[in-house]
Amino acid sequence: MSLILGKQFGVKPGVEISAPFDSPIATYELHQSQLNTLVGMCAKRFEFEHIQHLPKGSNVSQYRMSQGLAAHAVMDSVLSGDRRPLGTIMNDKWDQFVMPNLIEVNYDKALDEYESNVQNALHYINSNFDPLLVESEKRFRIPEIWQLSDKLNGVDERWSFVGSMDLIELDDATMTAKIVDLKFRDRTNAANNRSSSQHAMYALAAAYYGYEPSFKYVEFVRGKIIEQCVPTGEGETEWLFIKARQAIDYIQNNNYPINPSGWFCSRKYCSYWSQCRGKYEQDIEDENV
Ligand code: SF4
C-alpha cells in the first residue's frame, strides 16, 4: 500500500465524495454502510435503496436511525463551533431528523432519550478527546482499491472506499489516529459492531494516510456509555477486502440476492418489507387475528 503522509488526511481540497445514500454505480465509491447492507444484511435491500430508489416505509428502524442522525448532527454542530445555546441546536436537529420519523407513542420518553444521549455523548467527547485535535464527520477516500490486495484483482480500477468518521483525533507528533464511532441504540449490540466493516475500513483509511490507527465503538444505551475496543489488524483488513469483492461483484453483475433469514427481515426492521417479503407473506400478528 502506498502511504500518503501527514496533513492530507481524508480527501484532497476541492474533491467531493458521494453521500452514503447515493448510488455507487455512478460514482464507483463504496461506503462502508453500503458494503454492510450488501454483504452483511440483504443485497436486495441495497438494490431497493440505492439502485431503484424506492421510498422507505416508516418503522422502528427508521425512527432509531433518525434519533442517531439527530444526535450525530448536534455533536457535529458543537464541534464545528456552533455557538448557539445547546438547547437551540438540539431542537433544530430534533425537528429536522426525528419529527418526520417519530413513531414513539410516548413523545416525552423519546425526547428524554434524545437529551440523555446528547448529554452523555458530549460528556464522553470532553473526557476523552483533546479539544484542539478532535474532528467530527471526517471524510476520507481511498482511491483505486484494486491495488490494495490481490483479493480485489480485476475489479474496475475506478472503485474507491469512502466514508465519514464520527470522531477522530489525529496526532501529527506521534502519527496516531484515535477513531471513535458513536452508536445511539435502545440495546447494546457488540456482535453487530464486530461484524461491521466500519472499524476495518476506517483503520485502513488512517493507515493509508500514514497514521497508526486505534478504533472504538461507543454505544449510548438508556443512559449508559458502553465502550468496545475492536482489533484492526491484518486479518480484519483482509476480511474487508473479501467482503468488498463480493459487494462489487453484486453491483457489477446487477445481481442482488434476498436474505430472508436475518433478524432484520421483518416489518419492524426492513423499510422495504411491504414491497418485498411482506407482499407475499401474511404477518404472524395478522394470522392470529
Ligand atoms: S424484506 Fe427481507 S429479503 Fe426483502 S429487502 Fe427486506 S430484508 Fe431483504
Describe the secondary structure blueprint for this structure.
Blueprint: H1 24-27, E1 29-31, H2 32-41, H3 43-51, H4 60-79, H5 86-98, H6 107-128, E2 134-142, E3 160-171, E4 176-185, H7 190-195, H8 198-208, E5 212-221, E6 224-229, H9 234-252, H10 277-280, H11 284-288
Parallel strand pairs: 1-3, 4-5
Antiparallel strand pairs: 2-3, 3-4, 5-6
Helix pairs in contact: 2-3, 2-9, 4-5, 4-6, 8-9
The structure holds iron/sulfur cluster.
The site of iron/sulfur cluster has 14 residues, from helix 3.
Radius of gyration: 20 Å
What's the CATH class, please? Answer: Alpha Beta
Number of helices: 11
Query: What is the domain tally?
Result: 1
In N-to-C order, the SSE pattern is HEHHHHHEEEHHEEHHH
What coarse outline follows from CA principal-axis ratios?
globular
Tell me how many strands there are. Answer: 6
* CATH overall fold name: Lambda Exonuclease, Chain A
Can you name the CATH architecture? Alpha-Beta Complex
Structural class by sheet pairing and helices:
alpha/beta
Mean pLDDT: 90
Largest sheet: 6 strands, mixed
Portion of residues in beta strands equals 15-25%
Q: List ligands, each type once.
A: iron/sulfur cluster
How far apart the termini lie comes to 59 Å
Structural summary, described in words:
This protein has a single domain (25-275), classed as Lambda Exonuclease, Chain A (Alpha-Beta Complex). 43% of the residues lie in helices and 17% in strands. It has eleven helices and six strands. Bound molecules: iron/sulfur cluster. The site of iron/sulfur cluster (SF4) has 14 residues, from helix 3. Iron/sulfur cluster (SF4) binds next to helix 3.
